[in-house]
Design brief:
heterodimer; A: mainly alpha; 73% helix; B: 247 residues; alpha/beta; four-stranded antiparallel β-sheet; 9 helices; globular
């Protein structure tokens, strides 16, 4: 989740002391820990693909990659919409909207994600056999992440100085116009790295939908392990697969961040 | 109330929590007049300007602009604000937009002008404030003086009937103050109605028709610049003038 899985690769290195600024990038500044992870992942892949039992586990589990990614992407898009609306709602002048938004955020924060998934899938949708489990799982993830992203968007909007809204309003813009043209473009830019990191978290948390028997990577690994009793093969391969996806995504986020900063 | 008055403020009070920012201010500004407000910091100068376009809603009292009394009706306020340009101490340009986009945006969104029309007006206004070559620069690439001039162009592009200036040069380095004051002087010479919070005495001498000395949320003295400088009536005015004119 947002709070406890920051996977940013661009945390600031300690500032070089005055007079010691290196001309290029020094060897000690390289992210060795990251290079270490990449080496471990590559080494693991060689091992998995070369070992028949591991290879077989991988052949099974890879069927679930699409489900994991599609679930994550759809849930994330829904969560962004929900989060943006809720974040705006939390700053609304309308007392009802403000409180409804606040209640949603606090309610979701107070319930473990796993419990929430059970609740949405089996209580909210009880007796609605026509709603497939995959859809329930996506809704559960979206509702959970919507609450987290609402706080991200709210922080982003509040990071924009008051003068921006005042300048926009003094030109005759309505509140909504000022939000859309002035505040949100700057706010979203500020929170893009956080949004990227939350997507990485979403991919990992999507493994929870396996409890609804949605055949994502985790569920297939469980099925494979349960029927063959090859637990190491199933779960090592599963872990490496998740790590590969999250490391790749984090690299994309970091590269994007670097590009943003270059344009500043 | 005389017919010439474009702004009429009656008995304005503004309270922030327990702080009384404005304590019953009344004034009139005639069309084409340049009124300069001076006063110590915390005297309510900025609050007064911000109440005139209802960026701050007054606690009580009346503001009339062009014969219409302002209410908290948002539609009316948006229409009135489009007619009143406000220039801030800290410029408040939109950092994610180029100078040209800063000047075109409100024209398009509020005035509903076409892109071509808005850009034509924007380039004209950037020319007016003397930096047509900076149209494609972002605020972060401009000096303070250039930023403030873009901010003035942004306000002027709406074809306002009134311009409010809230200490427009006090965040600027000395060598940039002149370029902003020159733009303001030219504007005054063109007959723009201006309400200016500033302690730039050069501007006051060259352009002010009337001076208001504000202290503790009240108008202490309101008179011509000449009268205020040569023959101030109130002790507090004398004291304040002696402080700002010392150097």
């Amino acid at each position: 989740m947002a709070e406890h899985t920051s996977t940013s690769f661009v945390e600031a290195a300690p500032k070089p002391r005055i007079g010691q600024e290196p001309v290029g990038r020094r060897l000690v500044d390289l992210p060795w820990w990251f290079i270490g992870i990449v080496v471990v992942v590559l080494w693991a892949w060689v091992g998995i693909l070369a070992t028949p039992n591991f290879n077989e586990a991988f052949q099974w589990i890879k069927v679930g990659i699409a489900t994991t990614l599609v679930t994550s992407i759809i849930a994330y898009v829904l969560a962004i919409v929900l989060g943006l609306l809720t974040g705006l709602g939390r700053m609304s002048h309308n007392v009802v909207i403000r409180n409804v938004a606040r209640m949603y955020v606090e309610l979701i924060r107070g319930i473990p994600m796993l419990v929430l998934i059970f609740f949405i899938a089996f209580v909210l949708f009880s007796g609605r056999e026509n709603v497939p489990m995959l859809a329930r799982a996506i809704i559960a993830l979206a509702v959970t992440y919507g609450a987290f992203l609402a706080e991200v968007f709210r922080a982003g909007i509040q990071s924009i100085g008051r003068g921006q809204m005042e300048a926009a309003r003094s030109l005759g813009m309505r509140y909504g116009q000022a939000m859309r043209h002035i505040i949100l473009p700057q706010a979203i830019r500020n929170v893009l790295p956080a949004l990227g990191n939350d997507f990485v978290s979403m991919v990992k948390d999507s493994s929870l939908v396996s409890v609804l028997a949605v055949r994502d990577m985790t569920q297939i690994a469980r099925l494979y392990a349960g029927s063959t009793f090859r637990f190491p093969e199933a779960y090592v391969t599963l872990a490496v697969l998740y790590l590969t996806i999250t490391v790749a995504l984090s690299m994309a986020v970091a590269a994007y961040e670097r590009r943003l900063r270059r344009h500043e | 109330m005389n017919d010439e008055a474009i702004i009429v403020v009656k008995d304005l009070f503004k309270r922030f929590g327990k702080v009384e920012a404005l304590n019953g201010v009344s004034l009139e500004v005639d069309r084409g007049q340049v009124v300069v407000i001076i006063g110590p910091s915390g005297s309510g100068k900025s609050t007064l300007l911000r109440c005139i376009n209802y960026l701050e809603a007054p606690t009580s009292g009346e503001v009339w602009v062009e014969g219409k009394r302002l209410t908290t009706d948002q539609r009316q306020l948006n229409a009135v604000r489009a007619e009143i340009g406000l220039v801030f101490q800290l410029f408040n340009l939109f950092p994610h937009l180029t100078a040209l986009e800063n000047v075109t945006l409100a024209q398009r969104v509020v005035r509903r002008r076409s892109r071509e029309e808005a850009e034509r007006v924007a380039r004209q206004q950037l020319e007016h404030v003397g930096i047509p070559e900076k149209a494609d620069s972002y605020p972060g690439q401009l000096s303070g003086g250039q930023q403030q001039r873009v901010a003035i162009a942004r306000a002027l592009a709406m074809n306002p009937k009134i311009m409010l200036f809230d200490e427009p040069t006090s965040a600027l380095d000395p060598e940039m103050i002149k370029e902003v004051l020159d733009v303001m002087l030219a504007l005054a010479a063109e007959g723009m109605t201006m309400l200016v919070v500033s302690h730039e005495m050069g501007f006051v001498r060259a352009a002010a028709d009337e001076m208001i000395f504000l202290d503790e949320g009240r108008i202490v003295e309101q008179t011509t610049p000449q009268e205020l400088f040569t023959n101030p009536k109130e002790e507090r005015t004398k004291l304040f003038l002696s402080q700002i004119l010392q150097h």
